[in-house]
């Protein structure tokens, strides 16, 4: 072994960090080990129990195939293992580490509770065979737990969190890490190995996994999105040109004014540092001030950070519990027929239906509309927000537990720093304000295409479009009364 390296052979365990560029675990492994291999472990049973959906899994598999090629160019083999559940990972990993004869494991930390437990079990298992494990901070800019109030507590409110977060970043520009070096060719990595109690460890990425339906690929795109690191980098370059207009235009769903980077951030095809570095470098290193568009976008990225930090500080969020425990007393409705109409975009409220159809057809929904449909489900229909949270997890390409839970608890007024319970979005005024000419509605609700601008937000009775599922005014009053009763 060359004395330049701490380890002879290292293994990088890839998860939601499917890229070569600026991947901390990969970079650390390439720096510290003479030879490096990578592994991805699919656990379809656990993924299903976490409500991972067909789109997100299909996207991940395509990202993995692209990544396998990029890694191969650097003589880093990418292995694939299919298990059922997270609980099987420690035993399987021990066998793999032994059979591949590696002496260190590197991975980027993941923060939902089950993922944290899995990772700590793997660390314990490998400790028994004297193999060190390094979990790196990569999904967030600062490690959860690092931003604390003066009394050492986690922040529960966004604005002071943001202030402390920026201060703690201390002027760093989050420059992406250098590319991992290429390895010398090494024939000693086996093509496959047998793993007891599991499928073989192979170098083939499957097209599909048990329990998940394939999502049709058209011209290399899934639901209109091109997976992978190259497409992510292209999207970031495009958004760089438009970022100054972000604050003014981001609320209008008919305009393509937001970055649409969320599926890439979620799968890790792009890093949070690449995004922040781009924005800071255009704004003279400033998080606030300078370009309104840039500082507003950076603020959204800090929301992402905030929700991830919250998850670690308050593990009950990972157990289907509301942040505000008293809101568990809300007499939530479990009306399946109404819920189905909401899912299918058949509520008779055009902006809600257009938004839900956008989600079903493209695997993504505009942020303004996520707030509108979440408020509509949890307030106007008073349906348990966890049903909506679950549906989003199953259908969004950017389904991220922390951001999704945070967004739902915000809209349902059950979360910390959430919308106050008496502020219920009126879907008709939201529609008139943010889709004034009904362009977005017309795109996704073709039944309403011929209606004038003044009728499209709240259509008259029609043969081919349902009447509204509820009286928006009355249901709003009812929801406010229910929440007020909790006091
Ligand atoms: C009910 C609800 C559910 C949501 N579920 C998710 C989810 O599962 N995954 C997800 O990534 N975002 C979620 N969001 C946040 C937000 O809607 C999306 O991040 C955003 O619409 C993605 O589009 P974009 O990449 O163009 O965002 P941009 O506006 O360009 O923002 C850039 C990035 O900042 C982050 N971001 C922006 N807004 C938020 C926010 N409010 N909370 C946390 N991060 C944010 C995302 O990573 C996003 O890609 C949810 C919001 C709500 C109200």
Summarize the structure.
The protein is an alpha/beta fold and 487 residues long. It has helices at 24-32, 44-49, 54-73, 89-100, 113-127, 158-169, 229-242, 246-249, 262-267, 272-282, 292-313, 336-344, 350-362, 367-380, 385-395, 401-411, 427-434, 439-444, 453-456, 472-484; strands at 7-14, 33-42, 78-82, 104-108, 133-136, 217-218, 221-222.
What is the secondary structure topology, with strand pairs?
Layout: E1 7-14, H1 24-32, E2 33-42, H2 44-49, H3 54-73, E3 78-82, H4 89-100, E4 104-108, H5 113-127, E5 133-136, H6 158-169, E6 217-218, E7 221-222, H7 229-242, H8 246-249, H9 262-267, H10 272-282, H11 292-313, H12 336-344, H13 350-362, H14 367-380, H15 385-395, H16 401-411, H17 427-434, H18 439-444, H19 453-456, H20 472-484
Parallel strand pairs: 1-2, 1-4, 2-3, 4-5
Antiparallel strand pairs: 6-7
Bound molecules: flavin-adenine dinucleotide (FAD).
EC number: 4.1.99.3
Catalytic activity: cyclobutadipyrimidine (in DNA) = 2 pyrimidine residues (in DNA)
Domain Photolyase/cryptochrome alpha/beta: 8-141
Characterise the protein shown here.
The chain is 45% helix and 7% strand. The protein is an alpha/beta fold and 487 residues long. It folds into 3 domains: 7-137, HUPs (Rossmann fold); 140-177 and 229-313, Serine Threonine Protein Phosphatase 5, Tetratricopeptide repeat, CATH 1.25.40.80; 325-484, DNA Cyclobutane Dipyrimidine Photolyase, subunit A, domain 3 (Orthogonal Bundle), CATH 1.10.579. A 5-stranded parallel β-sheet has the order 3-2-1-4-5, sandwiched between helices. Strands 6-7 form a two-stranded antiparallel sheet. α6 (158-169) crosses α11 (292-313), α10 runs antiparallel to α11 and α15 (385-395) runs antiparallel to α16. The protein is globular, with a radius of gyration of 24 Å. The chain starts with 6 loop residues before the first strand and ends with a helix. The relative contact order is 0.11. It binds flavin-adenine dinucleotide. The site of flavin-adenine dinucleotide has 28 residues, from α9, α11, α14 and α16. Flavin-adenine dinucleotide is lined by residues 250, 258-262, 265-266, 300-301, 303-304, 307, 367, 370-371, 374, 392, 396, 398-400, 403-404, 406-408, 411. It is an enzyme of class 4 (lyase). Keywords: Chromophore, FAD, Flavoprotein, Lyase.
């Amino acid at each position: 072994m060359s004395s330049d390296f701490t380890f002879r052979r290292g293994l990088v365990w890839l998860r939601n960090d499917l890229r070569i560029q600026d991947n901390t675990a990969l970079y650390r492994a390439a720096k510290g080990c003479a030879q490096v291999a990578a592994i991805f472990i699919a656990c379809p049973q656990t993924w299903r129990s976490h409500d991972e959906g067909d789109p997100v899994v299909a996207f991940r598999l395509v990202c993995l195939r692209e990544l396998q090629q990029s890694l191969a160019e650097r003589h880093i083999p990418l292995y694939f293992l299919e298990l059922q559940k997270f609980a099987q990972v420690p035993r399987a990993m021990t066998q793999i580490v032994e059979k591949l004869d590696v002496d260190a494991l590197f991975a980027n930390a993941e923060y939902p509770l089950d993922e944290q437990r899995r990772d700590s079990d793997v660390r314990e298992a490998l400790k028994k065979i004297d193999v060190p494990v390094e979990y790196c901070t990569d999904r967030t800019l600062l490690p959860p737990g690092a931003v604390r109030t003066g009394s050492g507590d986690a922040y529960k409110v966004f604005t002071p969190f943001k202030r402390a977060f920026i201060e703690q970043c201390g002027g760093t520009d989050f420059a992406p890490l250098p590319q991992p070096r290429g390895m010398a060719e090494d024939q000693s990595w086996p093509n496959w190995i047998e793993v007891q109690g599991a499928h073989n460890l192979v170098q083939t990425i499957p097209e599909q996994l048990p329990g998940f339906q394939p999502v049709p690929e058209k011209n290399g795109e899934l639901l209109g999105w091109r997976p992978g690191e190259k497409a992510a980098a292209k999207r970031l370059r495009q958004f760089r040109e438009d970022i100054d207009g972000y604050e003014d235009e981001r609320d209008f769903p008919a305009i393509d004014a937001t970055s649409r980077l969320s599926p890439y951030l979620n799968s890790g095809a792009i890093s949070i540092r690449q995004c922040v570095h781009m924005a800071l470098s255009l704004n003279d290193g400033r998080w606030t001030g300078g370009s309104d568009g840039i500082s507003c976008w950076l603020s959204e990225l800090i929301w992402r950070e905030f929700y991830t930090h919250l998850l670690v500080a308050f593990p009950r969020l990972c157990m289907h519990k509301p942040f505000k425990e008293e809101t568990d007393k809300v007499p939530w409705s479990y009306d399946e027929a109404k819920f189905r109409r909401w899912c299918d975009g058949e509520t008779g409220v055009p902006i809600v239906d257009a938004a839900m159809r956008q989600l079903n057809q493209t695997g993504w929904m505009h942020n303004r509309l996520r707030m509108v449909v979440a408020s509509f489900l949890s307030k106007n229909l008073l349906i348990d927000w966890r049903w909506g949270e679950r549906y989003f997890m199953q259908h969004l390409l950017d389904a991220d537990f922390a951001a999704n839970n945070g967004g739902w608890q915000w809209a349902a007024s059950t979360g910390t720093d959430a919308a106050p319970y008496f502020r219920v979005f009126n879907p008709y005024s939201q529609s008139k304000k943010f889709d004034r000419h009904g362009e977005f509605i017309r795109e996704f609700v073709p039944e309403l295409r011929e209606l004038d601008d003044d009728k499209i937000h709240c259509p008259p009775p029609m043969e081919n479009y349902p009447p509204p599922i509820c009286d928006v005014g009355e249901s709003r009053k009812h929801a406010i009364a229910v929440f007020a009763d909790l006091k």
